[in-house]
Amino acid sequence: MNYIDLQIATESLHPDAAQFQIWVDAALSGFQQDSEITIRLVDTEESAELNGQYRHKSGPTNILSFPFEAPPGVELDLLGDLVICAPVIAREAAEQGKLPDHHWAHITVHGVLHLLGYDHIEEQDAEQMEALEIDILSRLNIANPYLEDSKQ
């Protein structure tokens, strides 16, 4: 079983813990099981601060992923932390013409894949990660988020 520690540090609208559980379980299906993930929902100020501190980029971002690396000899089921900026998710969903829950699902799946070691720096890696996201989201009846003309 996958355990989620949901921390809410925002007044903005956001999905509930049960919805995050569905998305995390879908993302981890076929991968690591019995994992623990902390999901922290934040406002733009905290997101911008963390984005500057850890990525040296200015302003808030939709999600930050912090994979957990256990010290040698320590075995924990902790995958890591996701920090999601609720106002950025709302703005992006509106700008992209997507249902908010579909965008939340996509960003959550995207973050979990980062915790599993996937990235999108190189084009080949990006294609692999996007293909996984599309497959996972399709199992949740969510359209391909990378199609520009798809209104979800």
Automatic annotation (TrEMBL):
It holds the Pfam family YbeY. Keywords: Cytoplasm, Endonuclease, Hydrolase, Metal-binding, Nuclease, Ribosome biogenesis, rRNA processing, Zinc. Its cofactor is Zn(2+). Zn(2+) binds at H110, H114, H120. InterPro entries: MetalPrtase_cat_dom_sf_prd, YbeY, YbeY_CS. It is an enzyme of class 3 (hydrolase). Binds 1 zinc ion. Its EC number is 3.1.-.-. Its main location: cytoplasm. Single strand-specific metallo-endoribonuclease involved in late-stage 70S ribosome quality control and in maturation of the 3' terminus of the 16S rRNA. Belongs to the endoribonuclease YbeY family. This is Endoribonuclease YbeY. It comes from Methylomonas aurea. The lineage of its organism: Bacteria, Pseudomonadati, Pseudomonadota, Gammaproteobacteria, Methylococcales. The gene is ybeY.
